[in-house]
Amino acid sequence: GQQVQQSPASLVLQEGENAELQCNFSSTATRLQWFYQHPGGRLVSLFYNPSGTKHTGRLTSTTVTNERRSSLHISSSQTTDSGTYFCAIVADSNYQLIWGSGTKLIIKP
Amino acid sequence: NTKITQSPRYLILGRANKSLECEQHLGHNAMYWYKQSAEKPPELMFLYNLKQLIRNETVPSRFIPECPDSSKLLLHISAVDPEDSAVYFCASSQGRSNERLFFGHGTKLSVL
């Protein structure tokens, strides 16, 4: 079946550094999404990005569908960026979301 | 974000019956229940599209979903088990293909 792999599993940075999160998937038909989970548990949709590049604030998502990968770039990281970042794709067979295991990001002051 | 509201926020149960509630104010057609255990991604439990249950994952029969109208979703739980301790999220999307999911705050269930 389709799979999603995220790397790194965890990342610790100093405030102000840039973060690069990777997502690789096994299918070219993705309807890929990036989610952010606050340390307190709240889940937020960051990007719906099946292909190309999207920006919002300090966040940039780039999906290269034929290479089966997506990245999430966080520039000038802040402590409030700490949390877990998930990518997910839509399965072709049943439209169910297939989630990666997440990248836990810790930004130190 | 108050566009998807869930209640209660926290729930501590013994072997009791309880219902979780969710309401979305986004005009979406699809609503979902997800279960998230610690340090894991969310797992889909149920999906409703236009009030019709179209995806019923292999969850224990003690979990019964209900969709009284297209903006509301309930999850009835009977005789909970310790393995049910988790956070239960309600989510919605415009269509049933999971495009751009929006989540509620979640209900943290702790089973004694």
Structural features, described:
- The complex is a heterodimer of chains A (109) and B (112).
- With 109 residues, chain A is an all-beta fold.
- Chain A has strands at residues 4-7, 10-14, 19-25, 33-37, 43-48, 52-56, 59-64, 69-74, 83-90, 97-99, 103-108.
- The mean pLDDT of chain A is 93.
- Chain B contains no helices and eleven strands.
- In chain B, strands 2, 4, 5, 6, 9, 10 and 11 form a seven-stranded mixed sheet that branches. In chain B, strands 1-3-8-7 form a four-stranded antiparallel sheet, with no helix packed on it.
- The mean pLDDT of chain B is 88.
- Classes of the chains: A mainly beta (109), B mainly beta (112).
- Chains A and B meet through strand 5 and strand 9 of A and strand 9 and strand 10 of B.
Layout of strands and helices, then pairs:
The complex is a heterodimer of chains A (109) and B (112).
Chain A: E1 4-7, E2 10-14, E3 19-25, E4 33-37, E5 43-48, E6 52-56, E7 59-64, E8 69-74, E9 83-90, E10 97-99, E11 103-108
Parallel strand pairs in A: 2-11
Antiparallel strand pairs in A: 1-3, 3-8, 4-5, 4-9, 6-7, 7-8, 9-10, 9-11
Chain B: E1 4-7, E2 10-13, E3 18-24, E4 30-36, E5 43-49, E6 52-56, E7 63-69, E8 72-77, E9 86-93, E10 102-103, E11 107-111
Parallel strand pairs in B: 2-11
Antiparallel strand pairs in B: 1-3, 3-8, 4-5, 4-9, 5-6, 7-8, 9-10, 9-11
Number of strands of chain B: 11
Per the principal axes of the C-alpha atoms, what is the gross shape of chain A?
Answer: globular
- Order of helix and strand elements from N to C terminus of chain A: EEEEEEEEEEE
Quaternary organisation: heterodimer
Number of helical runs of chain A? 0
- Helical content of chain B stands at under 10%
Please describe the biggest sheet of chain B, giving its number of strands, its sense, and whether it closes into a barrel.
Answer: 7 strands, mixed
Question: Helix amount of chain A, in percent?
Answer: under 10%
Strands of chain A, total number: 11
Spans where pLDDT lies below 50 across 5 or more residues of chain B: none
Q: What is Rg of chain B?
A: 13 Å
% residues in beta strands of chain A: over 45%
Alpha-carbon distance between the two ends of chain A: 41 Å
Structural class of chain B: mainly beta
Q: Specify the overall morphology of chain B.
A: globular
Structure classification of chain A: mainly beta
Average pLDDT over all residues of chain A: 93
Put simply, the count of helices of chain B is 0
